[in-house]
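[agent] plan:
  1. take the single chain provided in the ticket
  2. run structure prediction with default settings
  3. attach structure tokens to the ticket
  4. add a short note for the reviewer (M.T.)
[agent] executing step 1
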Amino acid sequence: MPNEVWGGTLFWCNLAVEDKRLSFVAYDQSTFNRYSYWVVHDNGLYGQVASTERFIRVWRRIWLP
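[agent] step 2 finished; step 3 output follows
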């Protein structure tokens, strides 16, 4: 059956380090993710193609009791 009927492949990622959280769609077949792989730095998430990194999202801080 075509993907229009059943949907496509979708992977998402949730990262957590101490009081920081980050969630993102790692792969979506319907939009064709163009990044070769993901890189996480202190300031946030980057997508990488060839040797070029592009900033995608900043870490979100949460309150911890």
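[agent] step 4 note for reviewer: The chain has a mean pLDDT of 80.
[agent] ticket updated
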